[in-house]
Task: structure prediction
Amino acid sequence: MTSDPSVWRVRPEPGPLTAPTGSGVLDGETVAVKDLFAVAGQRVGAGNPAWLAVAPVEAIHAPAVARLLDAGAALAGIAQTEEFAYSLTGANAHYGTPPNPRAPGRISGGSTSGPATAVAAGQAGIALGTDTGGSVRVPAAYQGLWGIRPTHGAVPAGGLLPLAPSFDTVGWLTRDAATLARVGDVLLPADAAALPAPAPLVLSDALLALAAPDVRDAVGRLGRDAGAQPVDWAPEPAWLAAFQTLQAAEAWAVHGAWLAGRMDTLGPAVRGRFERARAVGAADAEAARAAVGQAREQIRGRLGERVLVLPSTATVAPRPEEAEAAREATMLLTCIAGIGGLPAVSVPVTTSSGLPAGACLVGPAGSDRALLDLAARPACEWSRTA
Result:
């Protein structure tokens, strides 16, 4: 079977691209690696052919890749990303848009789009990706997958091409909760924070209201069935503005020197984001950094030792012409964990129309393993067991 170039940049047939280097809890698993991670003997393409053409061949694996190989997983191949991971739709102007196997005709979600599609299509068992503004949680919701954005800094980001280091995290997606947790056993440190037993779950009508009715109903029903208590948590538009300004400033600091004379190598949507990033002045960047710091304290203070249940995205996977309209509402939701530096697990739910969506569990910093364990249990047990 020929590999879809919108999904895979490198996928040898027969594979794998890289055999396991050890044995462990991931024996027999295969991994689709987002094209931002160093894989020994390969180049990092970052979704951009001009970057790929001059990228060096990597001498060693990124630490996250090496850990998966040591635990028994094989690398199925290197999967596509949106350019420099600066988008959430899944569309790549050069390679195309990966299909959405769970919602044909709708977008896949990005920027961990290629790996997510590979897992949803059964071409790999694990998608290794990144989440800056929602790039694991969004494709997880759109494609009916399990996904985690860990506590910021919990998983080493060495060998990873960054976008905005203040928010970048190494995350992953799977088709089931048990595999999601087994990857966590390999990549995550011991928890620095415990969840109370039973875990106190909270649900905000104001945050639910940011989602379309079908998503709001599915997530609200899951939260209430799990015993989540109502909480007054109104959305803060200023948080998203600060997040986007700081993300843009850092993205230009990372990539601006290379892109300055090569903006024409970018697709229109990503080019527009980098043009705006180039225009962020030093004073605005520092003000945004201060605002993000204050917001992080507020978010962590509001959450305390509780687990917040909210929609992973504002809508089901949109059709291509609707994608940008859905982006802002989704980022009002995803930026909460991003600014807070908090772990967030996207749990698949199904809307009344049969389309996939995601319920996101956001827990205290350093509670990643406990949050994975909580998510893996039936929702009716979330607030009743440790």
The first strand starts at residue 8 and ends at 10. Residues 6 and 95 are 5 Å apart (CA to CA). Residues 201-381 form a domain with the Amidase signature (AS) enzymes fold (CATH 3.90.1300.10).
